[in-house]
Amino acid sequence: MGLIDKISESIKMAMKQKNVQVLESLRAIKSALLLAKTQKGASSEIAKEDEIKILQKLVKQRKESADIYISQNRNELAEVEINQSKIIEGFLPEQISSEEIEIIITDIIQEIGAEGMKDMGKVMGMASAKLSGKADGKTISNIVRAKLT
Questions:
Q1: Helix H or strand E encompassing 36
Q2: pLDDT at residue 16 above 90?
Q3: Is-contact 22 38, C-beta < 8 A?
Q4: pLDDT in tens, 102-111
Q5: For 3-89, which CATH superfamily applies?
Q6: In the chain, ranges of CATH 1.10.1510.10 domains
Q7: Residues 145 and 124 sit within 8 Å (Cβ to Cβ)
Q8: Which of 6, 12, 37, 148 is the most buried (most CB within 10 A)?
Q9: Residues of CATH 1.10.10.410 domain(s) within the chain?
Q10: pLDDT value of residue 3
Q11: Residue 25: other Cβ atoms inside 10 A
């Protein structure tokens, strides 16, 4: 069962339960996936990696919106965005801990012989590919930067 099918089933369940917040989140996911599927030059099926990127983008958008609402003392709106980001995260692969990310990045640095910030691009490329969907890019970047300085 593909992600769009899982989302459609979850939408039916949310409608039966009359859970508006879950329903909004699921519809946002489905909309983004259908948009990616119908874009010019796209194939009829979305690759698993692309689905993960789309979900990560949606989560990031929700978290950034929540931060903006919090800075403007609009806590009720921030809470909605945070809850939606948690619902969307439920469809992402399980995230790994910072300690596990550090171990993987240390291995990558040793593997390619990175010696400083000039090698950050190489390390980030390999780390992003290896940790795709398991960690967000900002966390990976911060850990790589800390290891290379």
A1: helix 20-38
A2: yes
A3: no
A4: 999 999 988 8
A5: Uncharacterised protein YqeY/AIM41, N-terminal domain (1.10.1510.10)
A6: 3-89
A7: no
A8: 148
A9: 98-148
A10: 85
A11: 27
- Which of 113, 112, 103 has its CA nearest to residue 135? 103
Q: Can you say how many angstroms the Cα of residue 122 is from the centroid of all Cα atoms in its chain?
A: 22
Q: Report the distance separating Cα 135 and Cα 124, nearest Å.
A: 12
The DSSP result for 31-77, as a single string, is HHHHHHHHSTT--SS--HHHHHHHHHHHHHHHHHHHHHHHHTT-HHH
| CATH number for the segment(s) 98-148 | 1.10.10.410
pTM above 0.70, yes or no: yes
* Residue of 2 and 41 predicted with greater confidence: 2
Q: How confident is the model at residue 1 (pLDDT cuts 50, 70, 90)?
A: low
DSSP letter assigned to residue 4: H
